Target: Gfo/Idh/MocA family oxidoreductase
Amino acid sequence: MSVGVGVIGAGVISDTYLENLQSFPDVDVVVVGDLLVDRAEAQARTHSVPAWGTVDDVLAHPDVQVVVNLTIPAAHIEVSMRAISAGKHVWTEKPIGLDREGAAELLTAAAAAGLRVGSAPDTVLGPGFQTAKRAIAAGIIGEPLFAQTVFQTQGPDLWHPAPQFLFAQGAGPLLDMGPYYFTGLVSLFGPVDRVSAVGRKAREERIIHTGPNAGATFPVEVPTTVQVVTAFDSGQQAQSLLSFDSALERAGVFEVHGTEGSIVLPDPNQFAGRIAYVKPLGVLRDGMSFEQEWIEVEQEGVVVGRGLGLLDMVHAIAEGRPHVASGDLALHVLDVMLSAEQSAATGDSVRVASTVDPVPAVAADFDPFARTL
Model:
């Protein structure tokens, strides 16, 4: 028997969710809702969903057991809380919210109602990240010591027709792209103990380059380059660069270095990718080559895309186990990013108040296209 899903928010990201969710035998999207009902109708018809309407229509639908919240970040907490009040489990796009207090209240309300909250990014459930996680756990690089992650680009104002929200409070490269990288780091190393960060704006205004408003300027409210050092409870460390100011386009860098080697992981914004490691060179003498041999790791698992975390949550509810992309993980990652924002503003190292249990792994033979419920 499939679990009924209602989608709230019929924007661009809903295409990927609807396409993937409709391909999983264990879930069934029964209704799409949006503030603009005609947009909800268009998406429902495109993806063969039988019903559409307003947000209230989704929340009142008797067959909806899980609400997928694809609204703008500023509305995430409000819409998710309404879904909990309606007796529905929630899967929300990232971030879980824009403030710690609201996110914590959401999780408290869900727990009191016996309901689950899951949150993107769910790229950490993909076979790319999971294969690398298993290899690290098996000791392929010895004891992990530190990690490096990089996301640097010229900025979304070059291609997005309405990029203002990506440079407003609650966004910027830290909160827009940071969830992918910090979720990956916490999934490997566990909770963060403290963070130190620096940040800056390249300029106070940006120009829209594409679409009907090309040439218009808008204010930049947040740092557009942030560098973060994280110290984990387990003793590992990481340094992360997130920038909308780089002429050099480089994204998806995720490296973990250990006592017996270094491994590169796939882009944490993707569900699959290259995994390879190198071993230490050993003793070096004059004239010896510094070239290192990359050893490729074969990826295990079925590649899908967004919605994988919701499917895991549905299975976890049925099996009585924790789900991977949990609300607790999302809250801790939000806390890490807001702590980094605070550190960059004050110049002080910030202790992260929240914590999270070890993040479960995904079995190598997990098949999202198998009917299990």
Q: What stands out?
A: Residues 3-119 form a domain with the Rossmann fold fold (CATH 3.40.50.720). DSSP finds nine helices and 17 strands in the chain.
